[in-house]
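Reviewer 2 asked us to include a model.

Predict the structure of this chain.
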Amino acid sequence: MNDNLDTELSDLKVMVIDDSKTIRRTAEILLKKAGCEVLTATDGFEALAMIADNRPDVIFVDIMMPRLDGYQTCALIKNNEEFRGTPVIMLSSKDGLFDRARGRIVGSEQYLTKPFTKDELLGAIRRHTARAA
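Predicted model (structure tokens):
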């Protein structure tokens, strides 16, 4: 495998919003190994303040969360002029057509089913940050 693949992700700020500590921790470990700066939040409310302060390059958001779910969080990000262009990737343990369609409606760029692999996670980041680079 080509080692310089991981270096292309260094210095990217990636946010992971999930109420599952396990998912946040797993994503954080995988992303940090790839050289990303990782921000984590437990729900949409916590995330929105952090997004404004930290301006992540890519945002992963779980669909099922208390208070503000992933769809609502994504819609709020995409409705904000400043963050509309930030790629949002939905995370869900369900792999339903309805969920995927609803994710598209609120503006998400992609949909990953949990548990995700390292390749899926990093592949999603590459796909959506290459356009901006």
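The helical segments are 4-7, 21-33, 44-54, 70-78, 97-105, 118-130. The domain at 4-125 is CATH 3.40.50.2300 (Rossmann fold). We have added this to the supplementary material.
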